[in-house]
Amino acid sequence: xxxxxxxxxxxxxxxxxxxxxxxxxxxxxxxxxxxxxxxxxxxxxxxxxxxxxxxxxxxxxxxxxxxxxxxxxxxxxxxxxxxxxxxxxxxxxxxxxxxxxxxxxxxxxxxxxxxxxxxxxxxxxxxxxxxxxxxxxxxxxxxxxxxxxxxxxxxxxxxxxxxxxxxxxxxxxxxxxxxxxxxxxxxxxxxxxxxxxxxxxxxxxxxxxxxxxxxxxxxxxxxxxxxxxxxxxxxxxxxxxxxxxxxxxxxxxxxxxxxxxxxxxxxxxxxxxxxxxxxxxxxxxxxxxxxxxxxxxxxxxxxxxxxxxxxxxxxxxxxxxxxxxxxxxxxxxxxxxxxxxxxxxxxxxxxxxxxxxxxxxxxxxxxxxxxxxxxxxxxxxxxxxxxxxxxxxxxxxxxxxxxxxxxxxxxxxxxxxxxxxxxxxxxxxxxxxxxxxxxxxxxxxxxxxxxxxxxxxxxxxxxxxxxxxxxxxxxxxxxxxxxxxxxxxxxx
Length: 492
Ligand code: SF4
Hints:
By secondary structure, this protein is an alpha/beta fold. The protein has helices at 40-44, 50-69, 82-88, 103-112, 126-134, 141-152, 192-201, 213-231, 251-256, 261-273, 279-303, 321-324, 332-344, 349-363, 367-377, 383-394, 411-417, 438-449, 451-454, 461-465, 473-489; strands at 8-11, 32-39, 73-79, 95-98, 115-117, 156-157, 160-161. Helix content is 48%, strand content 6%. The protein is globular and about 80 Å long.
């Protein structure tokens, strides 16, 4: 190592892969050394979905190759841990990194003496979000989002929302359409780097995920051209005819740095200005990026490190067998969603919330086990997004700090919003008896089990009061015991 030429070491975590942001924005190609570390602990420390691991590693190796080609001095190190990799450099120059995206990584790097610069992979500085959150009685995303629209001047004219409304959600809740053909998702050719990574990992990747900046940009273009118009209306639908519907499939690239939120929003607004895209689709997408995504990241840092460990409903069931093997259930919705996840490490937000998280919530699955499972299996699962998303939104383990009521639903709700029930052995309308839909049974059983907690919650009182109208509560409780046992055994 030519120490004499190196003024600074710029450490690039695998989710900061962008030449224009983070420490690379001010890099000096002549005197800075850029370092990426592929740690064995990262590769083998958890039971990662192979597609996720492939995506992260191949993207990082492509990025390192692009930096070299652009004239940077680059070290791509394989080491036991990140810190071992930094130690192995053996040079005394100071190490810089943009603020990492988890408490744990921040602590490890800080302890080793790494200096941080502000993380600009998001549109909202952490301090700015904290100032907003500190003033709120409840952390309603919609309030934050409207403030973001004004602060960032996106789809705003003279302080008012373009089109006349801040939010078009009421136009965007259509169920699965009949006889409608969704576009095919973009397919990516695998290159030498991809194939080498796949071989080392002992897996065969799908063609769904880009692993370089250029291919991530083509994914953005594909979304804007082919899916943006229909994004809004079918945002919450699920259908058997398409796994991707009109979803952007951009979250993996936003979360590992290949794309930046600013350029994604600019591309979408530019398309809107061309006059061919309805405001309800553009607004819905912009809300996801400048509202929801920024809000979740801000809340992760605002709520603190201990938030991850909360278990307000004392949920202690071990992770269900169906989460690790889609064949361990007769529930068509759960089996189909887990099988989709096994295939490509991604399902959209409605199956995540309505099927997977709902099942974990209603069965009383341990929040930390479920959180770890989500982290391991989704291609876009960063710590900052999954912790509030699971602990707060998904399984209500935070006793309502993030969301005032749990997102619990029975079979009739799933039947209304998806096509799964048509091919299922269970009946979504039944709550007791052996043909009863497990979701319907467990929904009422969940309200019954947590009756004392939720009767004080004014947003839940109507649902809890519904228990009084159930003439078959004793039978339902018996069936719930059978369902929980069957799910534990992988037979329901
Ligand atoms: Fe899922 Fe129940 Fe519908 Fe079957 S009947 S697909 S278990 S919601």
